[in-house]
Amino acid sequence: QSEVVESGGGLVQPGGSLRLTCTASGFTLDYYAIGWYRQAPGKEREEVACINPADDSTVYADSVKGRFTIARDTAPRTVHLQMNNLKPDDTAVYYCGGHAYYCPSDGSWDYWGQGTQVTVSS
């Protein structure tokens, strides 16, 4: 059975950092892009970041450029999202997604997880 599982969410003060982890099972990241999207109450879903399997090229939403970094871990089938200089507007449930061959611009993930809550508040 193929799936992705998120971990690492929590409560952090504005300006702080968190690292989210996505662990995939049942498929190889050699052929699957891994990305993150978020959903906050009353807001539209936003695709946050993604890493392509062919060349590890990355894609970021304008709202997180320069603050968030997506990267593969040395552990197999694991991708991290390092989030720095967090803002209250980053508060959302963050979901990990997997998509065959490339990062989907329309958010049409093949696999997605249950999500992890990130709350940025003083």
SS content category: mainly beta
Give the % helix: under 10%
User: What gross morphology would you assign?
Assistant: globular
- How many beta-strand elements? 11
The main β sheet shows up as: 7 strands, mixed
The succession of helices and strands, N to C, reads: EEEEEEEEEEE
Q: Low-confidence segments, ≥5 residues, pLDDT <50?
A: none
By DSSP (H or I, 4+ residues per run), the number of helices equals: 0
Distance between the termini: 40 Å
Q: Using the CA coordinates, give the radius of gyration.
A: 13 Å
Strand proportion:
over 45%
Mean pLDDT value: 95
Task: Break the fold down into its secondary structure elements and pairings.
Blueprint: E1 3-7, E2 10-12, E3 18-25, E4 32-39, E5 46-51, E6 58-60, E7 68-72, E8 78-83, E9 92-100, E10 111-112, E11 116-120
Parallel strand pairs: 2-11
Antiparallel strand pairs: 1-3, 3-8, 4-5, 4-9, 5-6, 7-8, 9-10, 9-11
